[in-house]
Amino acid sequence: MRYQITGKQIDIGEALQTHVKNELGVAVEKYAERPVDAQVVFSKSANEFVCEATVHLSTGLTAQARGRAHEIYSAFDKCCEKMEKQLRRYKRRLKDHYRDRTEPVELFGGASYILASEAEEGESEPESLQPIIVAEMEARIPSLSVGEAVMQMELAGAPVLVFKNEAKNGLNVVYRRDDGNIGWIDP
After folding, report:
1. Are residues 36 and 112 in the same domain?
2. What's 160's domain CATH number?
3. CA–CA distance from 14 to each of 19, 26, 78 (Å)?
């Protein structure tokens, strides 16, 4: 597994990097058979350290966790516990969904845009109907089954997920509804 361990405006020493590699490696390999890479970012928020970890699995799933504490090692330990709990919850589903999958999930590129919010309060009508693009990014669109897409959305803690449906070979969307259920759009 490849590790990318960084600190935002704080120095990350060799001892902490070794600790992260050992502990996160044990936790992830315990519940996921083929982890690909892990990104761990440490930052400081007021008097607390924050640790954010993202683990990508060869199945296309992405697990994310975050921990906060007054000490940097404690922040990582809390983050690692959350990651392990998350993967443990989905281990049975991961086995069932990916037992027959021999190839990693195929990812397609797409464009993602951030549009400016509505006009200022003083303006009554916008100047044009074209939205103002604030940022443009590349998005990865996985090729998954509907069940895998729901699991990916829950693992990432995202409100919506766009994916290529393996069964119908078209773009689909799953999303969390206000009533707590999952919605699925299949055009």
Report:
1. no
2. 3.30.505.50
3. 9, 18, 20
